[in-house]
Each structure stands twice: as structure tokens, then as C-alpha cells.
Amino acid sequence: MSARPVRVLYFAWLKERVGKSEQKVDLPPGVNTVGELIDWLAANSPSHAEAFAARTAIRAAVNQDFATPATPVAPGDEVAFFPPVTGG
């Protein structure tokens, strides 16, 4: 099976909990959405499990467009995770 690389970015407290601002991962079989990516990341690292424990407090974007857990993720995509943003 060929590689399915994705660039994952972490911002604010997610970056602190994961311990890095970005990483490249190869999507395993069965990981095709943002929600499945979160599940897979959380299952493979204690720091990711801690970061994604409060999923309602996390927003995501795929290729700089807001995303939901059902949003598809494909090889070559950039997926960003960040807390909700408030404006003033």
C-alpha cells in the first residue's frame, strides 16, 4: 500500500499538550475523516490522548477551511487543530 501523508498542525494549548506544533503522519487504512484522524492520533500517543480529551473544545480545518469530524481527509492535506477563536 502506498503512503498517505498528511501534515497535522497544532495551535495554542493543543500544541503545548502534544509537545509540537506540527507533524507529518501517514494515514492508516480506515482513517478517512477528521474524526477518524483524531481517534487514531489519540489512540497512538498519551500526549495526543490528553490533547483530544475535550473534543468539544477543539476546532479543525482541512486545507485552511473549517472542518467537522465528518470532513474527509486525503493524502497531501493539511489538517489543523485549534481551540475556538473569539473575536472582539
Topology:
Elements: E1 5-10, H1 13-18, E2 22-26, H2 34-44, H3 46-51, E3 59-62, E4 65-67, E5 78-82
Parallel strand pairs: 1-5
Antiparallel strand pairs: 1-2, 3-4, 3-5
Beta content: 25-35%
Number of strands: 5
Largest sheet: 5 strands, mixed
**How many domains make up the coordinates?**
1
- Give the topology string: H per helix, E per strand: EHEHHEEE
In the CATH hierarchy, the architecture is Roll
pLDDT < 50 stretches: none
What does this structure look like?
With 88 residues, the chain is of the alpha+beta class. It has a single domain (5-82), classed as Ubiquitin-like (UB roll) (Roll). It contains 3 helices and 5 strands. It has helices spanning 13-18, 34-44, 46-51, and strands at 5-10, 22-26, 59-62, 65-67, 78-82. A 5-stranded mixed sheet has the order 2-1-5-3-4. β3 and β4 (65-67) form a beta hairpin. The model has no long low-confidence stretch (mean pLDDT 92).
Question: Can you describe this structure in just a few lines?
Answer:
With 88 residues, the chain is an alpha+beta fold.
Which terms summarize this structure?
88 residues, single chain, alpha+beta, Ubiquitin-like (UB roll), 5 strands, five-stranded mixed β-sheet
